[in-house]
Specification:
By secondary structure, the protein is α/β, with parallel strands linked by helices. Helix content is about 40%, strand content about 25%. A seven-stranded mixed β-sheet has the order 3-2-1-4-5-7-6, sandwiched between helices. The longest helix has 16 residues.
Length: about 250
């Protein structure tokens, strides 16, 4: 199978598999710089659905008109999430990413009002506390990319009462990371920092790059790996203050 004006599906699978296998952050960012011009076409070939699914989830929960919401897209890549957001009426979009090559592609889309180079997990987000009505990070929560320890930084820049939408893969090769991520999410919920609104498992996340990604005994004959969308609401300021005083 050949993709339109591009690599064959086996070639795309090999490139995406290589990205999944890189756990060193500097190596991964260099890989994304080189991949940036072809990224959109390659992930389309794998029927990558996470940006649309995440924005669908966020849109259903966000109060008020979309055009009034200030949104931060963390690890924004080439801007696939921004394209989905704009299609649903969101107009105030900021993005950050650790790859200059990816940011160049995102800038060319013309959908973001502001873009910043920032490697989450290595440095704080370039925003004040409580800036955004919603924060998304789609496709970046995995080994060698955004560490679980960076999740509180997403919370910091979200307004009290604001929403956070996170995604990760749930196939066998990413299960160890997913378990660590869920432990982090649960600790923040137990601390009353946020409340979980949605945990949406998705069977058809994207095409697997190999049988190893599917895992032994996989039943999905279509060859898709699975993923999950999480949606949280940050604790309101008054409630959070009460929790602190009651501790």
């Amino acid at each position: 199978m050949a993709l339109e004006e591009g690599r064959s599906l086996p070639e795309v699978r090999a490139r995406v598999a290589a990205s999944h296998g890189i756990t060193d952050l500097a190596h991964k960012l260099h890989f994304y710089d080189q991949w940036a011009p072809d990224y959109d076409q390659d992930v389309a070939g794998l029927q990558y659905r996470a940006p649309r699914l995440a924005v669908d989830c966020l849109t259903q929960a966000l109060p008020g008109p979309p055009h009034a919401a200030l949104i931060l897209d963390v690890a924004c890549g080439t801007g696939l999430v921004a394209a989905e957001l704009q299609a649903r009426g969101f107009l105030q979009l900021h993005g950050v990413d650790g790859s200059p090559g990816m940011l160049e592609q995102a800038r060319a889309r013309g959908l973001y009002q502001h873009l910043s180079l920032c490697t989450l997990g290595q440095e704080p987000l370039p925003s004040s506390e409580g800036t955004y009505d919603a924060v998304l990070t789609v496709g970046a929560l995995s080994d060698g990319h955004v560490p679980c320890s960076a999740v509180p930084e997403l919370l910091r820049v979200t307004k009290p009462g604001g929403l956070l939408c996170l995604t990760t893969r749930t196939n066998p090769s990413n299960l160890r990371y997913k378990e660590a991520l869920e432990a982090t999410l649960a600790r923040l919920e137990q601390a009353r920092a946020w409340e979980r609104l949605v945990a949406w498992p998705v069977d058809q996340w994207e095409l697997a790059t190999s049988e190893l990604e599917l895992g032994p005994g996989a039943s999905d004959s279509d060859g898709f790996i699975s993923g999950i969308v999480y949606l949280y609401r940050k604790q309101e300021a008054a409630q959070a203050e009460g929790v602190r005083h009651g501790a």
